[in-house]
């Protein structure tokens, strides 16, 4: 399972806009590179990234081969209630990795 | 002494010849690039026939990039992000990578701020375009020219 | 790569037989971080943005994973790496009595793995070896490089210096011509750094992954059109040793980010 690094503030005030940072280990092989044998290296990328907040989708991204290796995505969400943010990355083969982070809203 | 100097010059000439042939080889194996037309097609596939106006979007990329493998890219859009007036999607396109799409994100009023950052690949110096789709159906854009410098010390081959 | 040859050729042509200048004055030595773009530096200095941290986290897992016939983890003997490994990377390469020569941090990890854990050593440049090395090096972040010119290390440091200053390869270049004599100038689009190895293993944008100092040195040598030494060759370790000694006092930045 690839390694992911997520940064979500542990606590926030209700209604506050918070920044979320995500980083996941993935080669994001474009399919356009030629390997040492002369054969093209097959495409292998993460295609979809979704963040849900207490089950509700708050951010979604469709990634293309132009996204750098070890995709790094940061975005914002409004702290509405204490609970769980779930992050999922799905590769082109349909394999999904999910990681969660808790936020406490005061 | 004179002989050794001459031989070095010869080696440099050979190196020069290699540079020439290497470049040609490189071009011949490079996959077809996206073109401005392909980029337009990708834009239409993403946002339909809506007119795109300049403004409200700010695309941030360093004007000079030291390695095209990883270029910081931030898009922010002027929007109150209320229940009725918000940004619903942001798309980033390029005109010279093999494919015109870079990333498409969907967001909504809960985002609080219509902005995101990522790191992208740029095969060459080129123009990058960001387009934001608003809840009212209007589309706004920004574009920026980026110079990708030649890295001096690239690795011989993938290992 | 080929265009690199042309760039180097131009550099050599511009300064054909300039005599070797002196060493970089002690107080003018600077981290290679100062020769990268502000964006790359920001990426390095934010742990949530630095992809090298993914390797550090992998290394933390390996540190606590039992391995080999001993069925022991690194932690079983060394305890918490945050305590036991603090400062260790500032002293490598170090003299290993069992070999009668210096070994680098990767080799030390593999030595401990084969003799203490009784496990198969990791391959050079393997993901696991880089991850453990990154994790150990990370424990010294911010600490000054503490390499001492001991009597045992001195001849190896001298050998490393000799390799650094020797012209080699088809372009007849030495490491010192770029990194001692021309640092701060540009080579193609890049500033030439001083080659202070403060941040290894590094995440290199060019590689799109983490790599060792030995990989970087091999990379330099092939750029100079010289035959690169094999991974683990004494000459490479001597170069590492000389460079670390040359950078003594500068803080460890592992995992650094470089273009």
Question: Could you walk me through the main structural features you see in this protein, from its secondary elements to its overall organization?
Answer:
The complex is a heterotrimer of chains A (106), B (159) and C (259). In chain A, 0% of the residues lie in helices and 53% in strands. Chain A has 106 residues and is mainly β. Chain A has a single domain (4-105), classed as Immunoglobulins (Immunoglobulin-like, Sandwich). Chain B starts with a helix and ends in an 11-residue tail after the last strand. In chain B, strands 1, 3, 5, 6, 8 and 9 form a six-stranded mixed β-sheet that branches. Chain B has a three-stranded antiparallel β-sheet with strand order 2-4-7, with no helix packed on it. Chain B has two helices and nine strands. With 159 residues, chain B is of the alpha+beta class. Chain B folds into two domains: 1-30; 36-148, SoxY domain (Immunoglobulin-like). By secondary structure, chain C is mainly alpha-helical. Chain C has two domains: 2-13 and 30-46 and 146-258, Cytochrome c-like domain (Cytochrome Bc1 Complex, Chain D, domain 2), CATH 1.10.760.10; 52-138, Cytochrome c-like domain (Cytochrome Bc1 Complex, Chain D, domain 2, Orthogonal Bundle). Chain C is built from eleven helices and seven strands. In chain C, strand 3 and strand 4 (190-191) form a beta hairpin. In chain C, 46% of the residues are buried. Chains A and B meet through strand 5 and strand 6 of A and strand 6 and strand 7 of B. Strand 6 of chain A pairs antiparallel with strand 7 of chain B.
């Amino acid at each position: 399972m690839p390694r992911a690094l997520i940064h979500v503030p542990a606590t926030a005030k209700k209604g506050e806009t918070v920044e979320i940072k995500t980083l996941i280990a993935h080669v994001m092989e474009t399919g356009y590179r030629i390997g040492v044998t002369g054969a093209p290296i097959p495409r292998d990328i993460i295609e979809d990234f979704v963040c849900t907040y207490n089950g509700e989708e708050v951010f979604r991204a469709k990634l293309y081969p132009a996204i750098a290796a070890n995709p790094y995505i940061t975005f914002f969400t409004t702290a509405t209630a204490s609970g769980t943010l779930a992050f999922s990355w799905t590769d082109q083969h349909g394999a999904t990795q999910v990681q969660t982070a808790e936020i406490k809203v005061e | 002494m004179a002989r050794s100097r001459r031989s070095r010059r010869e080696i440099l000439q050979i190196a020069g010849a290699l540079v020439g042939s290497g470049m040609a080889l490189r071009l011949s194996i490079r996959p077809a690039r996206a073109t401005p037309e392909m980029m337009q097609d990708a834009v239409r596939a993403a946002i339909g026939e809506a007119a795109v106006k300049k403004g409200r979007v700010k695309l941030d990329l360093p004007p000079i990039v030291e390695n095209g493998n990883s270029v910081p890219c931030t898009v922010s859009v002027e929007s109150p992000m209320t229940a009725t007036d918000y940004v619903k999607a942001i798309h980033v396109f390029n005109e010279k990578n093999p494919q015109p799409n870079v990333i498409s994100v969907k967001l909504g009023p809960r985002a609080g701020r219509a902005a995101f950052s990522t790191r992208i690949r740029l095969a060459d110096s080129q123009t990058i375009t960001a387009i934001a789709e608003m809840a009212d159906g209007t589309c706004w854009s920004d574009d920026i020219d980026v110079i990708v410098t030649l890295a001096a010390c690239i690795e011989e081959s993938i290992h | 790569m080929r265009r690199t040859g042309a760039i180097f050729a131009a550099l050599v042509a511009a300064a054909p037989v300039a005599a070797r200048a002196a060493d970089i004055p002690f107080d003018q030595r600077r981290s290679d971080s100062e020769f990268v773009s502000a964006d790359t530096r920001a990426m390095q200095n934010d742990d949530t943005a630095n992809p090298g941290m993914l390797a550090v986290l992998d290394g933390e897992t390996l540190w606590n994973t039992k391995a080999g016939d001993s069925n022991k983890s690194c932690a079983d003997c060394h305890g918490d790496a945050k305590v036991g490994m603090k400062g260790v990377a500032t002293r490598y390469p170090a003299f290993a009595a069992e070999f009668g020569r210096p070994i680098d941090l990767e080799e030390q990890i593999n030595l401990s793995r084969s003799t203490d854990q009784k496990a198969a050593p990791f391959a050079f440049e393997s993901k696991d070896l880089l991850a453990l090395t990154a994790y150990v090096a990370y424990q010294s972040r911010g600490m000054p490089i503490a390499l001492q010119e001991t009597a045992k290390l001195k001849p190896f440091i001298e050998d490393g210096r000799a390799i650094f200053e020797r012209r080699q390869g088809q372009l007849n270049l030495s490491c010192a011509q770029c990194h001692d004599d021309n640092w701060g100038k540009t080579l193609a689009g890049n500033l030439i750094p001083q080659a202070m190895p403060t941040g290894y293993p590094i995440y290199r944008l060019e590689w799109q992954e983490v790599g060792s100092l030995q990989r970087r040195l091999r990379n330099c040598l092939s750029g100079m059109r010289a035959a690169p030494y094999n991974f683990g060759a004494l000459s490479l370790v001597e170069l590492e040793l000389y460079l670390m000694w040359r950078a003594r006092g500068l803080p460890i930045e592992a995992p650094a980010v470089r273009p």
